[in-house]
UniProtKB/TrEMBL annotation, chains A, B, C, D:
Catalytic activity: (S)-lactate + 2 Fe(III)-[cytochrome c] = 2 Fe(II)-[cytochrome c] + pyruvate + 2 H(+)
Originating organism: Aspergillus avenaceus
Gene3D superfamilies per record: Aldolase class I, Cytochrome b5-like heme/steroid binding domain
InterPro entries per the UniProt record, alphabetical: Aldolase_TIM, Cyt_B5-like_heme/steroid-bd, Cyt_B5-like_heme/steroid_sf, Cyt_B5_heme-BS, FMN-dep_DH, FMN_HAD, L-MDH/L-LDH_FMN-bd
Self-association and partners: Homotetramer.
Residue runs in coiled coils: none
GO molecular function: heme binding; L-lactate dehydrogenase (cytochrome) activity; metal ion binding
Keywords attached to this entry: Flavoprotein, FMN, Heme, Iron, Metal-binding, Mitochondrion, Oxidoreductase
Residue span(s) of domain Cytochrome b5 heme-binding: 2-79
GO CC entries: mitochondrial intermembrane space
Protein name: L-lactate dehydrogenase (cytochrome)
Similarity comment: family membership: In the C-terminal section; belongs to the FMN-dependent alpha-hydroxy acid dehydrogenase family. Belongs to the cytochrome b5 family.
Length: 497, 497, 497, 497
């Protein structure tokens, strides 16, 4: 029988030399694991000697604890009577009693975000809502769609209209997919598997985040026939870890492609997230933390402040990826098609197009405005490619994400040449608002709005959409017109090939 | 003598198998009529077993009940003492007591809208006010006029100035007409006939909505000599219904032309309207409704939410109209000139110009921002036509609507080539603010403002107005400059003709 | 000894057949004068039978009563005890007790307007503040200056800097003059003579309004040596009245030129003014008013509502002026140079330049945004002239007004070619804020700011200012680029000359 | 032993004929010094007969009193019991008790400004915060950076990234320096020496203001090895004073260059500063002040109002500097490199480039929006130079200041060709928020943000940054396009050389 500890006993082990934590009522000695924690030792030391369950649970896949610790690290259980009583947040109580409104009463993405904002914890809200610096890019992502006008054609039979499309050769029910957004269980216990369940109903594709709060196997478990998933990789400094993970992914037949995220080699500065996470920081930081810090590498010290959820997730991520080294390495580790995510210039889109056939597609993305503030929206990059190197569209599938809030936004992106449109926050807000039903409502609204839009444009299928359906005149005046790196790139690659 | 029912007895008949409703104190069995209701069965089933008068009355022409039901459907009367007591909305009471202010104290369209907003029911407000999605187009419709500057010429005798004009060969007192706005009796019992009475005083033209809350005959009943009406058709899936209606219209001599609306083959998403209509939705939906839903066709299920007045009106409308099929059909059913409403691109204006002589005019319109959000304002389309195919102005009369709030707006549209300018909401707000006098006040203000504007431009008659009187420089930078469908259209039609 | 009336006796004479009013304690029979009143009979009939002093006094030059009425019209005096007691406006009392702050504590035009807004009556505020329709032009007048950037040159000796300039050959202390703003005594008893006193201190020019609340003789009475005035004429329908007035003006040696206002042949729609004037309108309008109305000419009935101070002032103004008839007539009635005010297009500026030598200058003005809303600011017209017919600057002096709130605004207008800059509201707000001292403060601030601006631009005298000192790039993109009437004008005038 | 005075005795000496003040408990007779005071006699006379310590201390370098007054001017001490009791500002007390938050909780410049705003006196806030007129330029300085988009390049190894740079041949830790901002001790007793201490930690350069509240010697006292300072000169009308000061500066080895400020030959109109300084002005101004005023020169009377801290600092500054006279004079007085500050046009940048080798660099600056309102931001001038005379970048170092609030702003300026970026207010707010630690936090945040930005752009060192990393399309449409003075300048200088 496992030994039973008093909380005060556990509390003594709060140093790098002896670090215990309580998780799900059990006591673990994580001293040896400190240096291996992908999120860095600092975050564990903050919780050293305490019950870390509430912090740990929503951001770690179930079962991963057992995977990573040796059996003997489990020292015993804690006597629950000796733990301090947790106070419920009183302000939320009245709302919680009410429960969320019926999903069908939510008419648009704003409604859903509003309900989710009330439902989820402050920490979850801060992590989902946050974006870099002044959120200029986050807001521009949405506003830019408002500045594109539609050109409805009339007297066209619009009885039939469907959103069916094909991505990487797979048949899908809509050109809208769920972006690899991390930490779904922060918002709702259904987590990423709940998103998968909703996607199944619509034939929608889902990309699983490298930082999902469930394992890929858990997420795809109840996949429908023909349901399509991708898996997003953040390449680790410790390349072995990534290779192990890729080997595991290669075995999951529902996962059809690998997404390599490039737009966030280092974390952006998400101030809401950092502030949202300060709750725990009000407790005095044990001196252990400070000692440990000095041992961490420079990247993790880029900012001195506590750092939000976003920053913790970056620990261990390799900032040294390159076209020359990383792509060939990745190609040797998987036969799945590779999608490059986070391209923001026509030059990089062009380079990607030179890396077929390994690279099958690119995602124009600024990471939801979470990486570099005042980076351009995907729509800008679409227009840059159209202007400088339209041949890219012939060689690769071009997907976009960021700022989508209306079906008209989806349609506009498609008119500009995107094959698919990703939603990140809307899916998470949907989950936060109503679990699986909330994500379904999100997808339903966007699908309905997209079809209404296509009908009113006089269009039956997504591949009929083109630049003749939109007026981008205002936007054209904002598209990059400076020195293009294209010519020198063309020469370099011509010389190479 | 008719049988007298208790309300509780009626209440039992609330299923698709036996559906009774109370209207004007009488009890009707509408079970057989359910499938024929142009607004779909769902809306009736919501009121099944209840007194539906308040919902029914303002949106149905008087007498239409008798026209559509067999005599035996009238089962008897309801014992009024057994009906639940209706509570007056308390908030409105003080305002109601006061009554609306004298119409002459209202100085502009905003004043009138403000008074009407207080006067009319929430449902009416929501139906009139609402527009698609984020109302980007609705607001742009008005703002776009503010971005056009006027160029007043001075030292010109402006003693005389009049608004007289000719539309389709008819002499009219002003180039402002009332657009085919539905459901006038929602706002005021005077309804569309009240609008007609106001128009008579000004020699203004009126287009009768397909969804008017009075019959065309009722509306034109007190027409003055030379008063001009048009009639708007939404072609029904059941083409016979439309043909019967056209036959009836052909007999009304005051109706001089047919307006075929093209900009709304499927309903836009008017969220205010949907929310405004949710009042009744708070009552538990009888299971009958759900059963019935599954039988409805796809179009009516485009959005899962309750749907506002606007969506109900669309039921039965045919989304499959085409240049090739519908125009010839319509031409065989009426000899009246045909006006096509809802054109939003120069390409469609051009095609229309190839369909003379049946087509005598077009109305550039985005349906008051109620169809597709981020569609362009009529002013954009005017400028597109000027830029790509100005010959259209020689072949057709071009009318516009949407966003008119000032006499200067009217004048600017005329300067850009419009022959007439339609007002929808302003007429309805006028009606809501003060009945017939409110509509007169609306027309008076716009007429006065238009004349003041013309005088200050140094212009005596509307046909003197031209592009030299306005500065559209800012706007020109926003007009579509992408691929024009015009060349291929010219080739197609050249080949044909 | 004059007869003494009870107020109740006077009150009976409130019809067009017998119309008495009380003014300064005396009772007048104005029945015969009704039809001659330049402001129309309606406004008098509203006050028929009552004490009209408060309404009459601030808008009529002292002594004009005696000039216009026969001696026998003065029937006697009123017994003051029989008059109703006037209630002080309670809200204003605390402010009034305090009195206005010291003028030197007011740092800019906004400060001055704010103090004046508190000081003056609601009616005065409404008259001064109001502009047409939505006040788009009024606000644009000011904002347009913000969109012009300055280009300061450095390392230039800026010890000396003065604002001296020459207008029409007269030496003046600054290029800022007071525009012909009407009804100064509404704001402060010092009236237009107070403005003249302030101008004297600065060597600033003043244009006397046709609708001044003091006679020209009263205004120029204490003029300093070399002080320069202009006189503004609104040509009356009854041309004899204008001729008599011109004859009188010709005799006043301080008046050096005549300003003919062209931008307001009919009144704009100033809603604030109309609402501000409704105070009296809450009293029941005697039926007499209605009867009288039907006899008024069409122009004065353009709007049905009560009409503000602005509209009353327009009564009798001739809307039929033309280049061909009016200019020659005016030239025969005065030898003074003629300045044309209210030009808003390059075409009209060009025509004016063909009418030298009678016409010596033009004022680009939109009447402070009070005539036609969405008319262009004077800065636009300056730029239009520079673009289409810069030769105008060589033939005429070009002055501008409208929207000036900062010394930088003054300097920018001069850089664009204006010889002088007029201020209307700022002078009236100054008067309202602190009488003569308030106007001085206004002129002092603008002079100081203008000099600071010139010094920081590296400029010593106003005639050194040019387009190289400003960046109008943003604005250039808004300047009219449509069909210019210039070529046809050039042909017409070439043919003529 | 020094004589002890009662405050009432001192109070009698409040005229220009006998002017005493109390400073640090001592009584001084400053009658003879009145005419020599660089800030003018007026400001002293306001405090004549009173304890001036609170006003005097934070804006004068310690020890300067003894330097400027003869020993016999110290008459004795004041009996402290006879001085009026000073009341603490009650509102600030609660905040003061709390003390400022930990610096690491401040995440950006706005946070720091907010805390500083609470911490510092109203007078200090007003002096730091204020800018000219309507603060259009101050706000534009920051907004202009938001309108430049970044162009992140991906798949680039961004492990290494540093901010090291070289300015005027000196190695520095970052391209961010502290601008010559005056009166640091107003905000915090650590003053300019505190800023120096913070700069030392980061290898950041500091320019010492001519109006520093500490002597240059005091400021550089604890400089680290290799720490670099510049010294800013405002040339005095009394050139001897400036020569003496330069001689003194030449001896301070840490000072490596002289900055000659050109953008403020006369003070701008900083209304917040003027209002902020009115606190003392509420006391009755002794008649002495008025008498003294009439003797002052015109420049100091440019505005009649009290004038803020900013205006006082200008007293004695020579507005007559010229390329021809001043530069050669300065070159004879120092061998240090000369940097010209305040250039705002490409023409002046070009002229500066013709004055090598004395002139080694220029600072594009509008004085933080404190000189001429609606002057262009430094970014405009950078782009003007790029457009008209890019050769300037080869001949001189171009630095910029104004509006920097984010690391992305720093990076954007560098991309446009700036070698270094100055911060003025951010350093002062940092000092006000937390003394030395506050300035360190300011520099830390900007350094961290700059590095994150560079990494996400795919750039390792500052000299890799170029126009290919930014999209300035929107901005290009605002850059001056009028007549360039360049051609005539080229001719003039060609002729000369």
């Amino acid at each position: 029988m496992a030994k039973v500890f008093d909380a005060t006993e556990v509390a003594k082990h709060n140093t790098p030399e002896s670090c215990w934590v309580i998780l799900y009522g059990k006591v673990y000695d994580v001293t040896d694991f400190l240096s291996e924690h992908p999120g860095g030792s600092r975050i564990i030391l903050k919780l050293a000697g305490k019950d870390a369950t509430e912090e740990y649970d929503p951001i770690h896949p179930p079962g991963i604890l057992e995977e990573n610790l040796k059996p003997e690290a489990m020292l015993g259980t804690v006597n629950p009577d000796t733990l301090p009583k947790v106070q419920a947040e009183p302000e939320a109580s009245s709302d919680e009693k009410e429960g969320p409104p019926p999903m069908e009463s939510l008419l648009n993405m704003d409604d859903i975000e509003q309900v989710a904002t009330k439902n989820v914890s402050k920490k979850a809200w801060a992590y989902y809502y946050s974006a870099s610096d002044d959120k200029v890019t986050k807001h521009f992502n949405t506003e830019v769609y408002r500045s594109i006008l539609l050109r409805p054609r009339v007297f066209v039979d619009c009885t039939r209209c469907d959103l069916d499309t094909t991505l990487l050769g797979h048949n899908l029910g809509m050109p809208i997919y769920v972006s690899p957004a991390a930490m779904a269980r922060l918002g709702h216990p259904a987590g990423e598997a709940g998103i998968a369940e909703a996607c199944r109903s619509f034939g929608a594709m889902q990309i699983i985040s490298n930082n999902a709060s469930m394992t890929p196997e858990q997420i795809v478990k109840d996949a429908g026939p023909g349901q399509v998933f991708g898996w997003q990789i953040y390449v680790q400094i410790d390349r072995k870890k990534s290779e192990a993970m890729l080997a595991r992914i290669n075995k999951i037949k529902e996962i059809k492609f690998i997404v390599l995220t490039l737009d966030a080699p280092v974390p952006g500065k998400r101030e809401d997230d950092e502030r949202g996470n300060v709750v725990g920081a009000s407790a005095p930081v044990p001196s252990a933390t400070k000692a440990a810090e000095s041992a961490e590498d420079e990247t993790s010290r880029i900012n001195q402040s506590a750092g939000g959820v976003g920053k913790q997730l970056f620990a261990g991520t390799d900032p040294s990826l390159t076209w020359k080294e990383t792509l060939p390495w990745l190609a040797t580790r998987t036969d799945l098609p590779i999608i490059l995510k986070g391209l923001q210039t026509h030059e990089d889109a062009y380079i990607a197009s030179l890396h077929t056939p390994q690279v099958k597609g690119i995602i124009l993305s600024n990471h939801g405005g979470r990486a570099l503030d005042t980076a351009p929206p995907a729509v800008h990059t679409l227009m840059e490619i159209r202007k400088f190197c339209p041949e890219v569209f012939d060689k690769l599938e071009v997907w976009v994400d960021g700022g989508i809030r209306r079906g008209t936004d989806v349609v506009k992106a498609l008119c500009l040449g995107a094959k698919a449109v990703g939603i990140g926050r809307p899916a998470l807000w949907g989950l936060g608002a109503g679990g699986v039903d909330g994500v379904k409502r999100t997808l339903q609204i966007l699908a309905d709005e997209s079809k209404t839009c296509m009908r009113l444009l006089g269009v039956e299928t997504v591949n009929q959409l083109g630049p003749q359906h939109i007026n981008t005149r205002l936007l054209e005046q904002q598209i990059y017109d400076g020195p293009s790196g294209l010519e020198s790139l063309r020469n370099i690659f011509r010389a190479k090939l």
